[in-house]
Every structure is written in C-alpha cells, then in structure tokens.
TrEMBL record:
Organism: Agromyces fucosus
Classification via PROSITE patterns: HTH_GNTR (PS50949)
Record Pfam families: FCD, GntR
Transcription keyword on record: yes
InterPro entries in the cross-refs: GntR_C, TF_FadR/GntR_C, Tscrpt_reg_HTH_GntR, WH-like_DNA-bd_sf, WH_DNA-bd_sf
GO molecular function: DNA binding; DNA-binding transcription factor activity
Entries under SUPFAM superfamilies matching the protein: GntR ligand-binding domain-like, Winged helix' DNA-binding domain
Keyword Transferase applies: no
Keywords: DNA-binding, Transcription, Transcription regulation
HTH gntR-type domain ranges (all copies): 8-75
Protein name: GntR family transcriptional regulator
Length: 225
C-alpha cells in the first residue's frame, strides 16, 4: 500500500512538472516528451512519467504516435473550432445552472476581474487578458451543481490552454467587445433572468469570439506553432 501511494505521488509530481511547462510555453506544441529524460530530471523511474503522459493524453494535451513517441499536441484549426463550439455549449449550460447560486459577492468579484481586464486594453497583453478571462468565467461557472457538465467545461478550458493566445492575439479588437459582453451577462444574472436567457448569452459570447477568429482566418492563416 505504501508503494502504491508513493507511485501515485510521483505520478502527480510528473504530471504537474509536464503540465506546468506546457501551460507556460516551455514545452511548445510538437515538443517531444522523452520519458527517460524527464524521469532523470525528476529523479524517478519512467513508470510515473508514463502515467503522467497518459493523463495528459486523456486531456488532449499530449499525443502519442508509434515510432514518434509522446509529444505536446499540435494546434490544428479544426481542433480550435471543435473546442470552441463544445465549450460554448457546455459553458453556457454551466453558467445557467450556476446562476441561482451566484451571490452578490460573486458578482462583485466578477466585476472586479472584468474591470482589470478593461484596464489591460490600453496596453494589451493577450496572455494576461486570457488569464483574467478564465478567472472571470470561473466565478460564473464553478457553482454549477452538475459535476459532469463542470468536468466538460474544465476539459474545454484545459484544451484552450494548449491553444493559448490564439484568439485574442489573433483578433485583439475582440477583447474590447468581450469585456462589454461580460457586463451584460452579469446584468442578466443580477436581474434574475431565466436560465435560457443566461445560457444563450454565455453561448453567444463564446461563439462571437469563434466567429471573429474564423472571419480573420478567412483573410489570414490562423497562427501555427
């Protein structure tokens, strides 16, 4: 039993090690993950590293190909499209289900984050804006009482981290509109709007970003790693 706990701990350590480097950009899309090298860096066997790779593969952050091995998932235009479409649906549902549990404190917190987002617009940094964007939406969807829907939302956001900055760096003008849409969603929740109104507003907010990227993509190729 002690051995199992130790192995699990090392697997989680390896997971955090790799995941952090994917999130902060040190392991870019297409980066080859050499199990032996990572194991030596962590001073563990390859077993927990392999387990960590399997977890990351299940989350869509890593791919594994025969004769190639594990590598950080590549950004694909269709992957971005499908992720955004799915996230629009599940995050819209999660936000609507959360709405009855959103307190005045939640609303104040969300508005404070949105104001910080507004202040970044003059000296725009896509990565910082994206971080704040997740903080904002998390306030609104984390109270979702359906754990299955919430898990799908988390998976979608995790997948978007692999596509980091693809939206707001590609269509920076969209950030201004996003901040205004945030306030309208808050107003709906604050006014006690019915669940369908909240869900559709949250969904339209997500698809508006997707539409902006697709429109820009028709003029210029989507950035690739």
């Amino acid at each position: 039993m002690q051995t199992e706990r130790s192995t699990e701990s090392k697997s989680q350590q390896a997971y955090r090690f790799i995941r952090t480097r994917i999130d902060d950009g040190r392991y870019v899309p297409g980066y080859r993950l050499v199990l032996g090298a990572i194991a030596r860096e962590l001073d563990v066997s390859v077993v927990p590293v392999r387990e960590a790779i399997r977890l990351l593969e299940a989350e869509g952050l890593v791919t594994f190909e025969r004769n190639v091995g594990a590598q950080v998932a590549l950004i694909k235009e269709t992957e971005y499209l499908h992720t955004m479409q799915t996230l629009a649906l599940v995050e819209g549902a999660a936000t609507a289900l959360s709405a009855p549990f959103i307190s005045p404190d939640h609303l104040a917190r969300a508005r404070e984050i949105n104001e910080r987002m507004r202040r970044t617009l003059d000296d725009f940094e896509p990565s910082r804006f994206t971080e704040l964007n997740l903080e904002f939406h998390a306030v609104l969807f984390e109270e979702c009482p359906n754990p299955h829907i919430l898990d799908l939302v988390h998976r979608g956001w995790n997948r978007m981290k692999v596509l980091r900055d693809s939206s707001f760096s590609f269509v920076p003008g969209r950030a201004h509109e996003s901040v205004e849409e945030h306030e309208r969603i808050l107003e709906l929740i604050e006014a006690g709007a019915d669940a369908l109104q909240v869900e559709l507003a949250a969904r339209r907010h997500r698809t508006a970003t997707l539409d902006a990227v697709l429109a820009a993509q028709s003029r210029h190729p989507l950035p690739s790693p």
